[in-house]
Write a structure and sequence with these properties.
Length: about 100
């Protein structure tokens, strides 16, 4: 039996237009498009299991984005800073045979 989400999504006209724009824009990163599609489907009344099946993504992921959108609206679909130290890459090593310019 499918679970029912307590986060019922009702979109404003501006939110719907922005989500449709994001969902249709193939030049955006995949995660932005997928999140927009999740919320559009949620607003159409689909449950998390149905959305997950349609978008071939885990139900847990759909549930997380539905909740974030419900709480924070469009802003909730953006990436948040991640904890921890940012990755540091070592300087590029010179290939052998390159002169140092001196």
């Amino acid at each position: 039996m499918p679970r029912r989400s307590p986060f019922n999504i009702i979109l404003t006209g501006d939110e719907r237009r922005e989500l449709i724009r994001r969902a249709a824009k193939y030049t955006l990163p995949y995660f932005i498009v997928a999140r927009a599609k999740m919320i559009l489907l949620a607003a159409q009344g689909f449950n998390n299991d149905q959305i997950a099946a349609k978008l071939d993504t885990p139900r847990k992921v759909v549930s997380m984005w539905r909740k974030r959108f419900f709480q924070e609206r469009i802003r909730g679909l953006e990436e948040k800073p991640r904890p921890g130290r940012p990755p540091v890459f070592p300087p590029r090593a010179r290939r052998s045979g390159q002169s140092s310019g001196l």
